[in-house]
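Because discrete structure vocabularies remain unfamiliar, we reproduce here a specimen of the format, pairing a chain with its fold in token form:
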Amino acid sequence: DLRDSPELDAFVDEQLGPLLTDNSPRARALLETLEAYLAAGGRKAQAARMLHLERQSLYLRLRRIEELLGVSLDDEDVMLGLHLAVRALRFRRRSAAR
């Protein structure tokens, strides 16, 4: 049972911290953008369509995400870590809602 695992919390916080500590609408939009981008397998055009954004707006958001997290979304290991963290975050939120 990973729900209450401090290791899982630490991993999510390590990967997504700056996007989680700020509860502003802008930070929530960036997290939503990251989730869509990861769900689209890193395909920017598909992620932009999912979010109903112009691609240029998506590019700006992705650049901001990279700056905030201090990562490159071109790095496969980074993408894997972020994908796992986003999935774990969703898992934690679903578990908390029960």
Summary: The radius of gyration is 13 Å. The chain has a mean pLDDT of 92. Residues 76-97 form the longest helix (22 residues). Helices lie at 6-21, 25-39, 44-51, 55-69, 76-97.
